[in-house]
Amino acid sequence: MKVFEPLPPDVEHLAKIVVDAAYKVHSSLGPGLLESVYETCLAHELRKRGIATETQVAIPIVYDGIRLEAGLRIDLLVNKQLLVEVKAVEEMNRVFKAQVLTYLSSPDFDSGCSSTSTSP
Length: 120
Fold this sequence. Notes:
single chain; alpha+beta; globular
């Protein structure tokens, strides 16, 4: 089982900026839109703040000791340090946390979060 360490201060600061930007996007747009809309707007908001943000970043999965391209994609990779999964759902589900944890099991990443826009 992977033990999670506290975030380094720079990554924690970055995560706070992402949360603030996600809040701004959701407050402006409201609920009920497609995930892709929130993702596009969040990427724009982060770039507007001068933070390097990549969207739909392909990540391989390691199976049988081999790195395979399996179609896994991270919604946002922020400053090459923090992966962000955007969700537009009525309520959080354990599978969303599992998805982020799966991505974090890749040797390429060690910090991630899920940004959720909920509908009433």
